[in-house]
Every structure is written in C-alpha cells, then in structure tokens.
Specification:
Its EC number is 1.1.1.25. Involved in the biosynthesis of the chorismate, which leads to the biosynthesis of aromatic amino acids. Catalyzes the reversible NADPH linked reduction of 3-dehydroshikimate (DHSA) to yield shikimate (SA). Pathway: Metabolic intermediate biosynthesis; chorismate biosynthesis; chorismate from D-erythrose 4-phosphate and phosphoenolpyruvate: step 4/7. By secondary structure, this protein is α/β, with parallel strands linked by helices. The chain has 2 domains: 99 residues, Rossmann fold (3-Layer(aba) Sandwich), CATH 3.40.50.10860; 138 residues, NAD(P)-binding Rossmann-like Domain (Rossmann fold). The strands form 2 sheets. It has a 6-stranded mixed sheet with strand order 2-1-3-5-6-4, sandwiched between helices. A 6-stranded parallel sheet has the order 9-8-7-10-11-12, with helices on both faces. Strand 5 and strand 6 form a beta hairpin.
C-alpha cells in the first residue's frame, strides 16, 4: 500500500492476535477509504511515548486494548463524555497542535451488539456485571443508559467494584456484592468483563444465578470466552453470546468517529464468525 495511505493502529500487549486490522481494512474497502492499519505491541511503561511517536510520525487515530485503556485516558488532552465516565479510552485521535483526544466506544459497541444483533431489550432487566476494569466501566454505564432495572457489580478486588458503583452514583439501581456473596441471587443477564478467560482460572459462581430465560455475555471471544461459556452452559443458559459482535461494533463506532461514515458491520461480523466459530 502506498505511503499516502492514512495511518491508523491498535496498541496492546500482547497484540499480534488482534482482529482490528482486518476489521478496519474491511470497513475501509466498503467505503472506498485508503488507509493503513497496523498492530503495535508496547509494554505499559512505554505506552504514552509510543503513542505520541506514532502521532508525530503522521498517525491519525489509534485503538487501544489491554492493558492500556486507562493509560490512554490519562494521557489525553481532551476526553469525550463516554471516556470520562469510564475513566478509560479505547480510541485516540490526533488533534491539531500535537494534542490527543480520548474516546470510548466499548459501551456503545456492547449495547448495539446485544440489542440489535441479538435482539435483547435490556429495559427492566436485572443485570450482573463481573469485573470492574476499563471495559467493565464502559459497559456498566451503557447498561444503565439502556434501561436495566438493576445492575449488580462484583469484582475479585471489591474496592474496585465499590469505586465504580460510587462513580455511577445511583444506589437504587446500581450496587455491589462480594464475589462469594451471590448465593440466592438470580439475574436476567450476566456479563463477564473479567480477564479470567484470558489469564486462566475458573468461574466459581452459584449455578442458581441464572433463570430459564437468562442471557450470558462474555466481552471476550474465541478461546478466551471458553471458561465462562463452560460455567454458563453448566448453569443451564440457552443464550450465550461472546464479544465478537461487540468487537466489530465498537470498531465501527471508532471508524465513524475518525471518518464520518459508519460501515455495514454485518458482512464483517459474518465473515469472522464463520471463520472463528
């Protein structure tokens, strides 16, 4: 591809597995946009320097994944409301004068996937969110915006769950429980936003959390979603969704933010789904 192609990238550690280059190239092909999209693996201590160098060398936009989302938010000169509420960013844009704008499309991508692709009306639901990291924060706000009746947040480090609930500031709708204090509770929706499936471990959760109609959703996909899917299947869910659709939708939101045009996500999603299973 020629040097005139506009440069974009995704930063993470590790990042070689990322589907983002394929997704953004497919979006660009749809809309006749000429771009180059690359993966950049950078350890946490070198993240900000690497991002600023990328923009200084002509990069126009960057996606950000684990473990850099909170660092991306911290380094930005301007922050969207979605980024501010999450305290994390997955989308960075170069501004005039060397400044960087932070945005977060995780929450919007999640809601678009679960409500439009999977036809789940979130209004009136009781939801359980596992995890309190960057993606979990974005999803928590999005769930409440989408109209869930209650949101319960649990995290292995309970202080992080409490901090997220306090930041949301709706105690009547949003509260926390201890990870080992969920006996007797049941939910319409259980969302896994932990890194257990990525780093290894089991979901030692009560089977009674699920009802006949309950949906389980893992923000991860592929092998990283296997552990939570195993628990959800054993607990009796008929409705398990992984995060592949969310990945495509949040990418489309970032793409629209950069290019002013929203691509058709369904062909890209179907291509990836057929390949990944």
């Amino acid at each position: 591809m020629s040097a005139e192609a506009h440069r974009y990238a995704v930063f993470g550690h590790p990042i070689a597995h990322s589907l983002s280059p394929e997704i953004h190239q497919a979006f660009a092909a749809q809309l006749g946009i000429h771009l180059r999209y690359e993966t950049i693996d950078v350890p946490p201590g070198e993240f900000e320097e690497a991002v600023r160098r990328f923009f200084a060398e002509g990069g126009l936009g960057a996606n950000v994944t684990l473990p850099h989302k909170e660092a991306a938010f911290a380094m930005a000169d301007e922050r969207s409301e979605a980024a501010q509420r999450a305290g994390a960013a997955n989308t960075l844009t170069a501004l005039v004068g060397g400044k960087v704008q932070a945005h977060n499309t995780d929450g919007s991508g999640f809601v678009r996937d679960i409500t439009e692709r999977h036809s789940l009306d979130l209004r009136g639901h009781d939801a359980l969110l596992l995890g309190a990291g960057g993606a979990a924060k974005a999803v928590a706000w999005a769930l409440l915006d989408a109209g869930v009746q209650t949101l319960t947040i649990v995290n292995r480090t309970p202080e992080r769950a409490d901090a997220l609930a306090d930041a949301i500031g709706e105690p009547a709708r949003c509260h926390t429980r201890y990870w080992d204090g969920l006996e007797g509770e049941c939910f319409d929706l259980v969302v896994n936003a932990t890194s257990i499936g990525i780093h290894g471990g089991t979901f030692d959760l009560p089977m009674s959390l699920l009802q006949d109609h309950s949906t389980c959703y893992d923000l991860s996909y592929g092998a990283a979603a296997a552990s939570f899917k195993g628990w959800a299947t054993a607990a009796g869910t008929r409705y398990f969704r992984d995060g592949l659709g969310m990945l495509v939708e949040q990418a489309a939101d970032a793409f629209e933010h950069w290019h002013g045009q929203r691509p058709d996500t369904d062909p890209v999603y179907q291509t990836l789904r057929q390949r990944l299973g």
